[in-house]
Amino acid sequence: MTTTLVKNVVVEIEGDGQPVVCIHGLAGSSNNWTPVLPAFEGMKVVRLDLPGSSRSELASEPLSIDLYVKTISDVLGELKVSGAHVVAHSMGTIVAQHLALKHPELVKSLALFGPLIEPPEAGRAGMKARAALCREKGIAGVQEVADAIVKGATSAETKAQRPVAVTLVRESVMRQTPEGYAQSCEALAGAQRADVEAIKVPTLLVTGDEDGVGQPPAVKAMGERIAGSKVTVLSGCGHWTTFEKPVECVSELKSFYQTAK
After folding, report:
1. Do the domain assignments include residue 160?
2. How high is the pLDDT of residue 159?
3. Domain with 215 in it: what CATH number?
4. Distance from CA of residue 13 to its chain's centroid?
5. Considering the domain boundaries, does residue 185 fall inside one?
6. Range of the structural domain that residue 28 is part of
7. Which keywords accompany this UniProt record (predicted)?
8. How many domains does the chain have?
9. Buried b (16+ CB within 10 A) or exposed e, 188-209
10. Residue 20: beta bridge partners?
11. CA–CA distance from 217 to each of 113, 135, 210, 211 (Å)?
12. Structural domain includes residue 188
């Protein structure tokens, strides 16, 4: 594995073959994809920390979905990567949808975990409130958010049976800087829907039966709008899909890539 800085973005690269580009969600990092790396055997895996998240510094302008899309396209251009299988989680699924439409040459397929087209109005207000909390309280505010996310965004089964997954979720959130997380929340709060009907690449949508963000009815409706897409709902799973159900996610990805390659 090589870890490098590209356009001020921390990028991990490993393997050879068809490229896979991994985009994490709010309060995520490249480690969102560590549990499912076996699904990418024989492929070139590019995992990045979005600007303002984890190890990547904030950009010189406020974070937004458009900025994320431009940053990813610039990074892939620098790495001479195109025609990639794009894998994304949560907020990253919005970024991936826009990337597929704005830069179709970069995207060969989409695998979206805990996906959403855009946040509901209540969700936008909640993101703005989180941003304000983290700016007011600093790292203590980030910790409050981390504990709330563990409580509300993981399944009952995960909380009862998978303490390591719970720890990973909490650590992922606590790894964020207060301002980086605040701006990431504001980016999600301002997200606008992509024209998903125009997505023409093979698409896999995976969510949990207890996912309050990528709620199963909404994900199924999203799947109906993307021609030829496949929707899978994992039992006993919340929003942190790859942490909570890694074996099942690997299986879904491997099956998907047998036809998407």
Report:
1. no
2. 98
3. 3.40.50.1820
4. 17
5. no
6. 2-118+194-260
7. Hydrolase
8. 1
9. bbbbeebebeebebbbbbbbbe
10. 45, 85
11. 14, 34, 11, 11
12. no
